[in-house]
What does this fold into?
Amino acid sequence: EYEGGRLFCEVLSGSPHLVVCGGGHVGVAIVRLAKLLSIPVMVIEDRPLYANHAREAQADHVICDSFEHGLEQVEGGPDTYFVIVTRGHRYDKDCLEIILKKTYAYLGMMGSRSRIRLLKKVMKEEGYSAERLDTMHAPIGLSIASETPEEIAVSILGEIIEVKNSKRGGGGFSDEILEAM
It folds into this structure.
């Protein structure tokens, strides 16, 4: 209560920004679905052909460089959602080592439960915080028995929406609305 009245406050949050590490079939499906949901998406991919596939899928920004150099260009923040879907999981650990040092709303990585368990074990032995590693959504996505790249993208974006909408505060306003306010 405020001087006999009630005061309503809403914490404003910005629109989500999606960073996809990997431009393969699943990465491109994520881009397409994210664009349908009006979520800005950046793709980091080290292979020119696959970086072009991400551009063709209408990614807002594509960095064709090593994952390390690409992630150095990403600031992170409370509205940044990271998805790791690198080819054959070859660069997952490299991506994780960089992303875990950033601020993020969401970090998800594709992989089997046994592979993720092993990777977490190795990283804990290397000194990474168990609490920080446990913030990662892995295996990534909602459990909907998805099989195709498109179904996997639906499960991943579904999980991101769930995390975004469960954040305390506002429902996420567009950049234009936030600027006007």
